[in-house]
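Need residues for this backbone.
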């Protein structure tokens, strides 16, 4: 009898038989059980006619009918598992309690345990080709199948990747108007930023090199305040450079600099400023515009004396040219002389030739033009080296007085010599800043009373200055000081 019960328990019942058995056993078919039985009825496999036996041979391929039979068997197996889980209560529980615990999560909510099997309900409707295309689960895949699936992955070439990135970054025909404008603005900003970084990088390197070179050149000056005498210095120098022909009467402290570059003619220094640099002289005023003291290209150039000047005895007017660099090197610090306060900080100029040291008192500061079209076809010629007579020289000083930004309390006599320093300034295009110093007279005190400085209320400027300021030129019809000697084309 017990054996029969076990066999009966293992048998798979139909839905009607299952329902009848539950009723005969006294089971209560409550709403939850009715819902479960209805769900199971939907998943019940239909009876299929037995397929005719097919003699399989090694050459016979699986047919659609055998594939369908296999699918039906899969559904039947799933169905059997569901029924078996329903019929077998958990240990130490009643049959009714066991059934409910499988389908009720918190006692009042039905859980459809067949939901996981719904996706297999239409297996019989699938064809063999679809079944063959299903991916093999990783747990069941063989090494050959994994390799085959991996080989089917899409790989992009470098050209494809580059093209995709290019289309994302730059405007193209596939973009909308707004997207194209956005890309164009972004690209322009990136390019501008990159150019600025490159420019400032190059500028920084050049500034560093120029400053380093300036310090190296200063290090070549022999300190004449030490214990060594000129004889000792010359003896040491000639032992190192026996083939260098030195100018007669040259000061020993510049001997080593002269050995580096025979164009050296002196050194200019302005106390309380950044100007402390060597001066060279070439056969024209353009050679050292973009060439440094060592003969290499440099946008800093090298301060130079006008090619017409006599570097040994100095002319009536000695002219020195130098660039206005934004980092303060060369002659940039001359800009301080635009104000009286700047003059009061540095009222004197020190200039050494190879033969002698000179001191000049700052006399005048003016702004002028370098092109005739900036002043009605006229250039105020401050680059005259010799005036021919003391009278002509004083006429020039009167023209300077008309243009100077302020008086300094320093006077100029017909027998005096002056020095002129020129650099760029930016009040208008191609403007020039000119600082004029008067040489210290013999036995004259070096002291300068800067309290005597007074602003010129109406200095004379070129026409371009008034045009840029939107002002009327009060000197439009004034006399133009002229000299026979033409002005050289000097740059700063």
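Answer:
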């Amino acid at each position: 009898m017990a054996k029969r019960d076990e066999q009966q328990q293992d048998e798979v019942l139909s839905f009607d038989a299952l329902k009848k058995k539950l009723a005969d056993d006294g089971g209560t078919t409550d709403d939850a059980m009715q819902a479960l039985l209805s769900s199971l009825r939907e998943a019940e496999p239909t009876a299929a006619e037995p397929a005719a036996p097919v003699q399989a041979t090694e050459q016979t391929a699986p047919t659609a009918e055998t594939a369908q039979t296999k699918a039906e068997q899969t559904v039947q197996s799933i169905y059997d598992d569901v029924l078996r889980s329903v019929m077998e209560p958990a240990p130490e529980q009643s049959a009714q309690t066991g059934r409910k615990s499988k389908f009720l999560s918190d006692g009042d909510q039905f859980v459809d345990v067949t939901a996981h099997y719904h996706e297999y309900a239409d297996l019989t409707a699938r064809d063999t080709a679809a079944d063959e295309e299903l991916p093999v689960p990783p747990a069941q895949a063989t090494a050959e199948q994994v390799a085959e699936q991996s080989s089917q992955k899409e790989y992009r070439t470098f050209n494809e990747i580059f093209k995709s990135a290019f289309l994302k970054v730059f405007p193209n025909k596939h973009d909308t108007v707004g997207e194209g404008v956005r890309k164009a603005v972004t690209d322009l900003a990136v390019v501008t930023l990159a150019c600025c970084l490159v420019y400032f990088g190059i500028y920084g390197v050049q500034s560093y090199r120029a400053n380093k070179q300036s310090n190296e050149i200063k290090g070549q000056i022999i300190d004449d305040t030490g214990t060594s005498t000129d004889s000792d210095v010359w003896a040491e120098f000639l032992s190192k450079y026996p083939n260098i022909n030195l100018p007669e009467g040259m000061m020993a402290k510049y001997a080593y600099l002269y050995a580096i570059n025979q164009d050296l003619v002196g050194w200019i220094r302005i106390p309380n400023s950044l100007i402390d640099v060597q001066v060279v002289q070439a056969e024209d005023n353009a050679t050292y515009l973009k060439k440094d003291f060592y003969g290499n290209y440099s946008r800093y150039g090298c301060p130079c004396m006008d090619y017409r000047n006599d570097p040994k005895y100095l002319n009536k007017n000695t002219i020195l040219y130098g660039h206005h660099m934004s980092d303060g090197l060369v002659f940039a610090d001359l800009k301080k002389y635009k104000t009286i306060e700047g003059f009061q900080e540095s009222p004197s100029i020190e200039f050494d030739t190879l033969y002698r040291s000179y001191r000049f008192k700052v006399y005048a500061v003016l702004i002028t033009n370098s092109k005739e079209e900036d002043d009605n076809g006229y250039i105020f010629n401050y680059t005259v080296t010799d005036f021919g007579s003391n009278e002509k020289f004083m006429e020039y000083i009167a023209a300077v007085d008309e243009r100077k930004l302020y008086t300094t309390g320093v006077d100029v006599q017909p027998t005096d010599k002056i020095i002129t320093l020129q650099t760029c300034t930016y009040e208008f295009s191609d403007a020039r800043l000119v600082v004029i110093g008067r040489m210290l007279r013999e036995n004259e005190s070096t002291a300068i009373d800067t309290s005597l400085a007074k602003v010129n209320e109406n200095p004379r400027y070129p026409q371009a200055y008034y045009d840029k300021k939107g002002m009327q030129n009060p000197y439009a019809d004034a006399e133009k000081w002229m000299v026979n000697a033409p002005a050289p084309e000097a740059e700063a």
